[in-house]
Amino acid sequence: MTHLPPALVLLGLLAAGITQFDGPRPEEPRSGYSFLTPELQQLQDDDFANPGMLWVEQGAALWDEASGSSGQSCADCHGDAAQSMRGVAARYPAYSDELGRVINLEQQINQCRTAQQGAEALPYESEDLLGLTSFISNQSKGMPISVAVTGPIAESLERGRAFFYERRGQLNLSCANCHEDNVGSHLRAEPISQGQTNGFPIYRALWQTMGSTHRMFAWCNEAVRAESYAAGSQDYVDLELYERWRSQGLTIETPAVRR
Questions:
Q1: Distance between CA atoms of residues 5 and 129, nearest Å
Q2: 145, 150, 156, 157: CA torsion to nearest 10
Q3: Which parts pass through the membrane (predicted)?
Q4: Partners of residue 67 on adjacent β-strands
Q5: Catalytic residue among 74, 175, 178, 220, which?
Q6: Count of CB atoms within 10 A of residue 257's CB?
Q7: Mean pLDDT of all residues in 235-240
Q8: What are phi and psi of 4, to 5 degrees?
Q9: The model's pTM
Q10: Is 178 annotated in the active site?
Q11: pLDDT at position 3
């Protein structure tokens, strides 16, 4: 597959005034679920056995817990999450008018905490932020991913695409080399998936805990012997947006279980 240099693609889009994003993506998007063993699929499907549900329950408790100088909880502003948060995770990352850039769901949670509750931002990969993100994402379980691709979000999407196709690290591999060119092949004993992100945050057996999309990106970077970016960096948010765009057609599975 031949790809134009991302910078030329972006310049071409801007010069033409085109804001509608288009590009290669899987004709039949496949969730990482379809690459699991039957035993792990069964674990994910059973809400009583799925270890990720512990984080969903923790997030549900935090939803009702007052925090910060405002003395308010998430529920005080948003009410019943089953209604107010239904579909929210399917739309993120999204452009924030307040911050003037694309942010992901974790950053939106922290934006609410600092701006509305007067509370400190929760650290990335902290149990509380994973819990709230898992709880809110779980409200969209079964809903199709649908991120915006026009307007100010287009440049972020294009940067994410450039990241996806850029070779990096001592192994000189891009995300696409594994998750497009070698889908279904095996890396040691593990099948290579399409790298879809519809189940995040995920409970990963390798980690023995929950992890965010950005933790997974960092793990992949380390696997190709490349320097990782910080969780929450704009580079990873852009990549997360592009991954979500590639995932369109799939439904939210949070909390997913992966190897």
A1: 36
A2: 50
A3: none
A4: 72
A5: 220
A6: 24
A7: 98
A8: -70, 150
A9: 0.89
A10: no
A11: 40
